[in-house]
Amino acid sequence: MPVPQEMNFIVEQASCLFLTMVKNVSFIRLTTAILDNYLNIYL
Question: Is 0.70 topped by the overall pTM?
Fold first, then answer.
């Protein structure tokens, strides 16, 4: 059984990873939306 400090560290790492993933997904969605608009305008 991990001690509370270890548990805390694991939770922090997990939430950090989760936030990074969420940011990447939002960034990709934003980029895709911008590219779609760009292509619709210029093609």
Answer: no
